[in-house]
Amino acid sequence: MPQQVFLRDAMRRLNFTRDALAQRIGVSRRALDSWLLPDESPEMRKMPEIAQRFVLEILKRTSIDTQDVYNHPTGNSESGQHLLSVDGYTRDSVEALLRVADIMQPVARRQKTTRVLEGAVLANLFFEASTRTRLSFSSAFARLGGSVCDTTGFTFSSMAKGESIHDTSRVISGYADAIVVRHPEQGAVAEFARATHVPVINAGDGPGEHPSQALLDLYTIQREFSRLDKLVDGAHIAFVGDLKYGRTVHSLTKLLALHRNLRVTLISPPSLMLPEHLVEYLARNGHHVEQTHDLPGGLKGADVVYATRIQKERFAQQETLEGYSTDFQINQALVNATCGAHTLIMHPLPRDSRPGANDLSVDLNFDSRLAIFKQTDNGIAVRMAIFATLLGVQDQVQHSLREVGWRVPVYLGPEEEVPYRDQ
Ligand code: NCD
């Protein structure tokens, strides 16, 4: 197992920050950081064997056994082999999946290739607008060596001729080894799953859930927190915007609820508050929840600010944006005035960058606290992990890795040239 995967896994299982682990094994934080850097980084150092033995010893003494969760890495006993919702995940099964995502990192970063899904076919069915979810599921499947066929919108599918979800799903099961579905109606993806034994992944069902997005959001929080020496337990997370219809928020609040002692601030206009059952769920799991319409007040002291787009397309006819004024925008001035030096600014994207939209402002594009492109980059590793585990090849990946044969840029985007990238 690569040392980076081993160390990240150990810290997750022990719930240790980097400082805590470094101290426990008697090395400097700098040394530990250098062991965690990706192989291609010039500052990466090999971890001495004695250090690895020491970490293994600590794991053994805390008698952590996660063996069984690796057998159910989607954590979803109810829906079997599908990924329809984050319900059914335990903290251990989420962490097992994120460990597989760590193994995928060199492939997602284009340092290595793998062909573990050679010959497999993915059907990508998107009945709603999408750029990143559709393309990143395709890209993730292709990077595992599989091929992708897809259809977009109702107009070009037989559903326009009145075909039922059951028939469509059963037909596609004969063509593909996995099916990713996005649909405007809550529950529709589960209906697809009921008609097939081929794994179905929910890529967003109306205002329902978006489990893969929540997994990549949690993965991003964990990785960024690791660099900042923070744990998810005890963190202060502020959700901003359309919490009523934002399905990424619905899934993410449930995954976060698996942690301990969070402070969750829900900031939205009165008409777009988080559904009551989710507020209750957070509270029932011992988290401190506050709901407010005051944006600057709510952002104070947050470790994570998770902004969302107003989902106007889901509004009922008489619904308006009452209370959503122009000063509901997260921009540089507001972040400087209310957030700390290490607050993570997140957004599932797309953000509405048109004038007057009040979404996350583009003036934050080069602020090092902005994590939106880390989220999208991490989406590849996490979606690869989802496919690999659903199709049962997660243990083959490590031994299948080969060097890439083409030229890969050192930085993927202009915002990446900040010194701490990927520590
Ligand atoms: C979101 C979605 O479709 O739910 N986007 C995404 O998948 N990353 C959020 C949105 O559309 O606003």
UniProtKB/TrEMBL annotation:
InterPro entries assigned: Asp/Orn_carbamoyltranf_P-bd (IPR006132), Asp/Orn_carbamoylTrfase (IPR006130), Asp/Orn_carbamoylTrfase_sf (IPR036901), Asp_carbamoyltransf (IPR002082), Asp_carbamoyltransf_Asp/Orn-bd (IPR006131)
Q: Which family does it belong to?
A: Belongs to the aspartate/ornithine carbamoyltransferase superfamily. ATCase family.
PANTHER family for this protein: ASPARTATE CARBAMOYLTRANSFERASE, ORNITHINE CARBAMOYLTRANSFERASE, MITOCHONDRIAL
E.C. number, please? 2.1.3.2
Keywords tagged on the record: Pyrimidine biosynthesis, Transferase
State a single Gene Ontology molecular function. aspartate carbamoyltransferase activity
Catalyzed reaction equations: carbamoyl phosphate + L-aspartate = N-carbamoyl-L-aspartate + phosphate + H(+)
Name the Pfam families on file: OTCace, OTCace_N
So which residues are the signal peptide here? none
Pathway of this protein? Pyrimidine metabolism; UMP biosynthesis via de novo pathway; (S)-dihydroorotate from bicarbonate: step 2/3
Q: What is this protein called?
A: Aspartate carbamoyltransferase
- Role, per record: Catalyzes the condensation of carbamoyl phosphate and aspartate to form carbamoyl aspartate and inorganic phosphate, the committed step in the de novo pyrimidine nucleotide biosynthesis pathway.
Source organism, top-level taxon? Bacteria
Q: Which residues form the Aspartate/ornithine carbamoyltransferase carbamoyl-P binding domain?
A: 81-222
KW Transferase (keyword) present: yes
The record places domain Aspartate/ornithine carbamoyltransferase Asp/Orn-binding at: 234-389
